[in-house]
Amino acid sequence: MQNxxxxxxxxxxxxxxxxxxxxxxxxxxxxxxxxxxxxTGANIPWIFDVExxxxxxxxxxxxxxxxxxxxxxxxxxxxxxxxxxxxxQAMRTGGRVIYLHTSVEQQIARTARDRxxxxxRTANPGQVLRDLLEIRDPLYREIADIIIxxxxxxxxxxxxxxxxxxxxxxxx
Length: 172
Ligand SMILES: Nc1ncnc2c1ncn2[C@@H]1O[C@H](COP(=O)(O)OP(=O)(O)O)[C@@H](O)[C@H]1O
Ligand SMILES: O=C(O)C1=C[C@@H](OP(=O)(O)O)[C@@H](O)[C@H](O)C1
Ligand SMILES: [Mg+2]
Known about the structure:
By secondary structure, this protein is an alpha/beta fold. The chain has a single domain, classed as Rossmann fold (3-Layer(aba) Sandwich), CATH 3.40.50. Helices cover 57% and strands 14% of the residues. It has a five-stranded parallel β-sheet, with helices on both faces. The longest helix is centred in the first third of the chain and has 26 residues, at 44-69. The protein is globular, with a radius of gyration of 15 Å. The protein starts with a strand and ends with a helix. The mean pLDDT is 97. Bound molecules: adenosine-5'-diphosphate, shikimate-3-phosphate (S3P) and magnesium ion. Residues 14-15, 33, 76 line the site of magnesium ion (MG). Adenosine-5'-diphosphate binds at residues 8, 10-16, 110, 150, 153-155, 158.
């Protein structure tokens, strides 16, 4: 069975929904950010501080390449995983790609209390999220097999929607 790979911006719910979806389907769950942290032995803010964003992206590319080659697992990616063409190619060929779509307002609300996202350590995280989404939304769409709206929907409902939409997809 192919992987189910979840993409979308910070606060879309990739980590939360990925875990629930894997449980529902009795598949293994991998969160690329957690894999990066385990392999580095340090958390994401530390990696950004010490190695810079490009250092983090290099680690992310390595981890994604490996995860996409495995089979039958749910993979939650980080919001910037779609930036490098090599990653987009790995995700396209590694499984079905699910884009969790979210309004910037919801992203702001869902990320407000968490200190673990270095890109949002700024005076105006809302503007950063808006600017990032403008660049990244076309890239999420470029590789998505399905796009799921997550605003006004609790995680369990998002999972049910994903399952229904996966059933509708033609086999490839
Ligand atoms: N559909 C949803 N409705 C309400 N809150 C959500 C939803 N999905 C995720 N959340 C909450 O938003 C926060 C960020 O979710 P997370 O899974 O870490 O997002 P991501 O991995 O996409 O950055 C968490 O506190 C989570 O409980
Ligand atoms: O959007 C991004 O560039 C990032 C998103 C984060 O993951 P989440 O989308 O799970 O928050 C994490 O990979 C890192 O802080 C960078
Ligand atoms: Mg996450």
